[in-house]
Amino acid sequence: MKRDNPLALLRLVWRARKPSALSDMPAVRNDFWLRRGYEAMTFFGFIVTATQQEADHINGRMTPLKRHEMIHLRQAQSTGNSWLRFYFLYLWHYLRALPQNRRMKNAAYRLNPFEIEAYAHMYEPDYLDRPADEWRRWARMKPRQRLKLFKTCE
Question: Taking Cα atoms as reference points, which of 95, 47, 51, 107 lies closest to residue 71?
Answer without folding.
Answer: 47
